[in-house]
Design a protein that fits this description.
Helix content: over 70%
Shape: globular
Number of domains: 1
CATH superfamily: MFS general substrate transporter like domains
Transmembrane segments: 6-29, 41-61, 73-91, 135-157, 163-184, 225-246, 261-281, 293-311, 317-340, 352-377, 383-401
Function: Resistance to tetracycline by an active tetracycline efflux. This is an energy-dependent process that decreases the accumulation of the antibiotic in whole cells. This protein functions as a metal-tetracycline/H(+) antiporter.
Pfam family, one: MFS_1
Membrane topology: Multi-pass membrane protein
CATH topology: Growth Hormone, Chain: A
Number of helices: 18
Distance between the termini: 37 Å
Radius of gyration: 20 Å
Subcellular location: Membrane
Oligomer: single chain
Length: 404
């Protein structure tokens, strides 16, 4: 059996550290808005800013990665994440919002991540490699909160200083990721550069939402089925908005979880997700009808999402629901990414992934506004919204199957 390409291992390492950094600071986010009126709205606003700026950063970074290569985008993104996390060292609401904006600008890196993985993946390994990406992300979601929890527990850091210590830990890891990005060799051979006029045009297109839709329609003519897949991913993105909502829900609802409890929850969630994703994408994903799998996983995931809103104060119930979560909707993302990757070429892979992430950014921004408003009415209502969006995924994929 040939050894795996060292570049893909480095890409996985970069993803892993990036997610660890992002998830490590998740449990401390409520500290930056504590004492403000309607703190859940401020947390939702921060999430909306983080995701919304990807509307233009993702297509732009995707275009640049097609023209200049994937490696420069990895390096710039790693530096951006480092600087963004430095903003969190003083625990201030204004700096928290600034962090969300600056970190969102470079989070478009995941456009480049998927392009780079697809660049160097043989066709028969594509679903597996993209599925491993999902498992790596899950692993990051385990170790990030776990490291935060261990840091807060073993060093007995007093409550008023917890956020600053965790932010400092994230800064150190972000610095390590800069080194890994510098070590990565290029994966994209057909680099043609991007002229000044092309760059300005790409930037204008990125901030012009009607042209975003038009560009996708044009791409759909040469890659049939692309537009439906992008719309399906947008609906799925709306449904997994609960990843961002869970922290305010767990801390402000009857669950009353503190930073440690939230860290332990994500540790359990991530551990189960790693094992299940690895087994599924290593032994199952390439041997099944992916569209049918998405339909059934989405359909079975609808009651799982609805159940989160009914747990009351029972933390045991949350952990039970997570087990079903890992077996259903948590498996969908890699399948959607694999189907999308099959509809790209070396010439436009970064651009297509960038357009897709921009649509997901728009969906995330809109969804954040929706669940933010719903949470003011009742903290349980957003779970009904997430379940409804996942039902839409099942409906859209089901219609695509009938059309075929």
């Amino acid at each position: 059996m040939p050894l795996p390409d060292r570049r893909i291992l480095l890409i996985y390492a970069v993803i892993f550290l990036d997610v660890v950094v992002g998830s490590a600071i998740g449990p401390i986010m409520p500290e930056y808005v504590r004492g403000l009126r309607q703190p859940q709205l401020w947390l939702s606003l921060g999430t909306g800013i983080f995701l919304g700026v990807q509307l233009f950063s993702a297509p732009l970074l995707g275009k640049l990665s097609d023209g200049y290569g994937r490696r420069p985008i990895f390096i710039v993104s790693a530096i951006g994440t480092f600087l963004a996390n430095c903003l969190l060292l003083p625990v201030r609401t204004g700096l928290y919002l600034a962090n969300r904006a600056s970190d969102g600008l470079t989070n478009g890196m995941y456009t480049t991540v998927r392009s780079a993985i697809t660049d160097i993946s043989p066709p028969d390994k594509l679903f597996k490699n993209l599925g491993i990406e999902g498992a790596i992300i899950s692993l990051g979601f385990v170790l990030g909160p776990m490291c935060s929890g261990l840091l807060l527990t073993f060093y007995h850091i007093p409550e008023g200083h917890q956020a600053a210590y965790v932010a400092g830990f994230a800064v150190v890891l972000a610095a390590v990721n800069i080194g890994l990005s510098l070590w990565l060799r290029e994966t994209h051979a057909q680099r043609t550069g991007v002229t000044g006029p092309e760059l300005r045009a790409a930037l204008l297109e990125a901030v012009n939402l009607p042209t975003l839709w038009q560009r996708l329609r044009i791409k759909n003519q040469t890659h049939p089925g692309l537009l439906r897949l992008v719309l399906t991913q947008a609906l799925f993105t709306l449904s997994i908005g609960y990843y961002f909502y869970f922290v305010p829900f767990a801390s402000l609802s009857a669950l009353q979880m503190d930073a440690r409890a939230i860290s332990y929850f994500f540790m359990s969630f991530g551990t189960a997700s790693i094992a299940i994703n690895y087994l599924f994408y290593t032994y199952v994903a390439d041997r099944i009808n992916q569209r049918k799998a998405i339909f059934w996983l989405a359909l079975l995931g609808v009651p799982v999402l609805a159940a989160y809103g009914l747990v009351g104060s029972s933390r045991v119930a949350v952990y039970v629901i997570v087990a079903f979560d890992c077996l259903t909707l948590s498996l969908i993302q890699g399948l959607l990414e694999g189907l999308l990757a099959q509809r790209t070429t070396d010439a436009d892979r970064g651009e297509i992934f960038g357009l897709n992430q921009a649509v997901q950014g728009l969906a995330s921004f809109a969804g954040t506004l929706v669940f933010g408003v719903l949470s003011v009415v009742d903290l349980r209502l957003p779970w009904a919204w997430f379940a409804l969006c996942l039902a839409g995924v099942a409906w859209l994929v089901g219609r695509a199957g009938k059309a075929v």
